Amino acid sequence: MGKQILLEHINKPGINTIDGYMKNGGYASVEKALKSMSPDQVVEEVKTSGLRGRGGAGFPTGMKWSFLDKKSNKPKYLVCNADESEPGTFKDRYLMERIPHLLIEGMITSSFALTANTSYIYVRGEMMYVIRILEKAIAEAYAKGFLGKNILGTGYDLDLYVHPGGGAYICGEETALLESLEGKRGNPRNKPPFPAVSGLYDSPTVVNNVETIAAVPWIINNGGASYAAIGIGKSSGTKLISACGNINKPGVYEIELGVPVEEFIYSDQYCGGIPENRELKAVVAGGSSVPILPKELILKTANGEPRLMTYESLSDGGFVSGTMLGSGGFIVFNDQACIVRNLWNFTRFYHHESCGQCSPCREGTGWMEKVLHRIEHGHGKMTDIDLLVDVAKKIEGKTICPLGEAAAWPVASAIRHFRKEFENHILHPESCSAKHLYFGTLAVH
Amino acid sequence: MSDLLKVTIDGKSIEVAPGTTILQAARQIGDKYPPAMCYYTPLKNTGGKCRVCLVKVSQTSEANPRPIPKLVASCLTKVENGMVVENESSAEVLEARKGVVEFLLINHPLDCPICDQAGECDLQNLSYEHGTETTRYEEGRREFNKIDIGPHIQLHMTRCILCYRCVYAADQLTNSRVHGVLNRGDVSEISTYIQNSIDNDFSGNIIDVCPVGALTDKTYRFKQRVWFSKPYNAHRNCTKCSGKTVLWMKDENIIRVTARKNKFGEVEEFICNECRFDHRSKTDWVIEGVRDMGDDSVISANKYELPVVSPAVLVDSKFVSE
Ligand SMILES: Cc1cc2nc3c(=O)[nH]c(=O)nc-3n(C[C@H](O)[C@H](O)[C@H](O)COP(=O)(O)O)c2cc1C
Ligand code: SF4
Ligand code: FES
């Protein structure tokens, strides 16, 4: 097991309470940042660390922070995106549930860096128990003087609120999240303007994922350079991977970026291989929206190099032969899994979750789902395959927010790499009925 | 004039004021401007949703000659100095637009033969110009029950393209919006909450801003094909609005009153419900003369008596929604 930054203390007794957390060095970064650093020095440290957004897009966090319009005379906001709803992704909830103070500490240190005096954690509405855990932890932090007025006597004020989402995947898209936080319908906004200029209540805002913010305390305590020394090149530090599907040990793993995919799947430190020693068929490496890759391409790049768990290596080959690290939702399929049925399931999800604002996504997701449903249920036609490819292409890049792409990429990639399987469904529908929806059945626990 | 910005669209250049969008600049050039189904100049915050106005920016500005990688919504994207835009000159734009039109039509009932909006429907015009003649869509079409939203207006959600214009109109013209978008995705619907009735002095304007036949005038329902009626500019002294309207006449009868629209289909001045619904006698009005609807409208003079042949795509109507 490599370096543990986020999960180092996760199994210590009482780590979910502020006393247990402080016994293990908790809140040191707040002391250090507020008492001995300027906000800009904190931003610089995060820049040096090379930390990239863990919500899916992998945008460099320090750079995002430096885009915040600090000269604006409006209030600045930090909003934590804890809406985690991408199928296959269940890492943020694990952190918040087990070690809530890590996120709160990160929120305080990061809010200080951004000169925000009010910050929010927007939590997926279905996770009511997580909301209660966070609220209790926030109350403890207020009681110890880490939140509220004049924190640790430094003159810095911060109020932190938990906001329950309404239970829509689209509210994880950062501008839909901001609309929802403002009490409106969670429709994504057209960009520009970007949140850094005009976000929450028209004010400069940074939206970051839970895991991104949770990495900040370690970076401040140990220095950006130490963080950058972990991992490979522009993929610095550690990443939580939520692994599920046909593996022996589903769960959340913290990896040093750079672990070979093959090692991640087969090593007993991580997924522990595939049950009954079955063959690996395919992997969705970064949450349901990233392109699926067949065994040959997920273990090795098209150039024959070992595929590594880094932003760069996973995307090597573009969408022709590569994929994305995404949110770290790692879904493994064995040789019995049915690609068509899984694709239909994913597409059903995006159809259900489209906000319906823009025509390509509103209409295209439903169209793709209906065609896939037909193919899966034995009523497909050969022309349906190219139709799906074309509909996906007409959604991609034409929409207000990336949900359109999130719906289009799985369709395009499944057909790109598994066209035969679709043809087989259409020609021999009867032979397909025995296959199962492995992701749906195994990822639940 | 150094603070004007130069933009080139399909090879034609124009100088526009800062803050002008690509769509507005293209309309100023006046040639082949992008279509717009959701953007509506008189209403703030409209646009960005339908995606039919997508264009290609092949040069961002003089200072930044790089192209913008994705197509952009011309109704929202502001012009920069030296920007180069491809509208109809780009095959990529035309292909994308064809795709959007197809998306707008797959769940549309295509019931033009019995729809009051036919002849003045933006979707009909759009599909005529940018659509294909046949459909690739074989799945079931979405249908909604009709909702009664009061004495004046018929809401036929099955025809709606979710442009949100009527929502912004109610927000910006009236002091109490009682309708909005309920639900999500392709089952989103315009509705009042628990069948409220939409009833205030300016509610009738949501009929005029609707690009399709989803919101129609109950007093005009099934009275007449629009191209068999004749539009006259008229006005009256009104305490609530400008009183400037268009009277739609059949023989000597006023069968409908609407606001005046410019050639982009946008209302010039919104009118009140009294002018729209309550004055149907010629003596109520000062009639100014026949309104020129522009050459490409089926409503234009001399076309009144001609039978209008529907585009092939519209004839292929399997699903008639009453
Ligand atoms: C449809 C959709 C859903 C998303 N859901 C989430 C989510 O649940 N959690 C998250 O952190 N980011 C989500 N994102 C990404 C956010 O928009 C945003 O990029 C991210 O929160 C930025 O944080 P980061 O820079 O720390 O990664 C989603 C994006 C889209 C388009
Ligand atoms: S892409 Fe889909 S989810 Fe995103 S704004 Fe458009 S309709 Fe809504
Ligand atoms: S008119 Fe621009 S997106 Fe609808």
Descriptive overview:
The complex is a heterodimer of chains A (445) and B (322). Helices cover 43% and strands 12% of the residues of chain A. Chain A is an alpha/beta fold. Chain A has a five-stranded mixed beta sheet with strand order 8-7-11-9-10. Chain A has a four-stranded parallel beta sheet with strand order 3-2-1-4, with helices on both faces. Chain A is globular, with a radius of gyration of 22 Å. Chain A starts with 17 loop residues before the first helix and ends with a helix. Chain B has 322 residues and is an alpha+beta fold. Chain B contains seven helices and 14 strands. The N and C termini of chain B lie far apart (57 Å). The relative contact order of chain B is 0.13. Chain A binds chain B through residues 168, 170, 185, 190, 351-360, 362-367, 370-371, 374, 387, 394, 397-400, and chain B through 47-52, 54, 70-71, 73, 76, 96, 99-100, 102-104, 106-107, 136-137, 139-140, 142, 161-162, 164, 180-181, 183-188. The complex binds flavin mononucleotide, iron/sulfur cluster and FE2/S2 (inorganic) cluster.
